[in-house]
Amino acid sequence: MNKRRILLVLGLSAAIISLAQSLYVPLLPDLQRDLHASLSLVNLTVTLFTIAMAVMQVVLGPVVDRNGRKKILIPSMIVYVLATIGCMVSSSIDMLLVFRVIQGIGAAAVPLVAATMIGDVFEGKERAESMAAYQMILGISPAAGPLVGGLIGSSFGYAGAFGFAAASAVLILFIALFLLPETKPTSLTITGKQLGRMAFGRIFKSKSGRVVLLSGFVLYDVFYTFIVFLPTILKSQYELGTANIGFFTLALMAFNLVGSKLSGKLQTKIGSVKSLLGVSFLW
Question: 7-10, long-range: CB within 8 Å, 24+ apart, which pairs?
Answer without folding.
Answer: 7/118, 7/121, 7/122, 7/130, 7/133, 7/134, 8/137, 9/172, 9/175, 9/176, 9/179, 9/180, 10/113, 10/114, 10/117, 10/118, 10/134, 10/180
